[in-house]
Design a protein that fits this description.
TIM Barrel; binds adenine; 10 strands; alpha/beta; binds zinc ion; two-stranded parallel sheet; 8-stranded parallel sheet
Amino acid sequence: MNSTNLIDFIEQMPKAELHLHIEGSFEPELMFKIADRNKIKLKYKSVDELKSAYEFNNLQEFLDIYYAGANVLLTEEDFYDLTLAYFTRINSENVIHTEIMFDPQTHTDRGVKFGTVINGIKSAQEKAKAEFGISSKLIMSFLRHLDEQSAFNTLNQSLEFKHLITAVGLDSSELGNPPSKFKNVFAESKNKGFITVAHAGEEGPAEYVWEALKLLNVTRIDHGNKSLNDNKLVETLVKNKTPLTVCPLSNIRLKNVDKIENHPIKTMLDKGLIATINSDDPAYFGGYMNENYKAVFEALDLSKDDLYKLTLNSFNSTFLNTEEKSELINGLNDFFNNYDYQDKL
Ligand code: ADE
Ligand code: ZN
């Protein structure tokens, strides 16, 4: 048995990521490089000036900056570079499987072709599989601040690339844009064979989580924090084993949780919810997967069993088939059987 400390243990542990916006992994240095290449002038003079704008009081303040940053992405090469940079980073953090969200409307509304976006991402997925052995799936997210017709247009554009996309999702400004607004396009997405997920209960109320379950038939809830305000909903999520893709640093940076010591991840586990740890928009929120794990383990009284459960939950909640899941879970079990950690942080 090899012994280490908790930090090394978290860093070395094989992990899966289930909630990651590829546009949210756009690091300032790469943003400036691509802006330069495309002869686009950013509003900020330097990387440091841009980074100093990353202070958010709520989701909308973040989204305004996130969409502005995404505006410099124009070519297939841009989407390839963005996605490969994310894979390179998570490879160094021992993330071995990831399910990546992308927002086609953010790009097609600026005149970028759907194919340009997805072909760039796809090439990076192939490279990451070949070079790092990282497997991945794609989730096409509809922007909920736009209307349902726009989501239908996006769904239609995606059909030619259906073989590359596993699920559809719902993101952007939650308050005032309930899941019910998208029930028809989600029904049609299901008909076409897509799995469905949705952001719900990040800023919006528990009622939005009910709607995501009942009207969008989602397999997972992205965030879901506000579910804790509704006991009946918690009971339903536990009974149906519906995973929550929780994003601790995002919750702090968007002020959905006041401080990390008050993060509800432990409460979620104790209530029997299938909680998982994810990074959401790591370039904007101060860390990728390992930083998210470390933040909650530093602040909360989490045990080795909790660490195992959170990570096992992620592997079990992927869109992989049973055989593929077993292979990853066997690797996790080997890791836990062969390594231990001594001290708290
Ligand atoms: N798009 C990118 N990150 C998001 C988040 N945390 N919530 C909603 N939409 C998003
Ligand atoms: Zn998100």
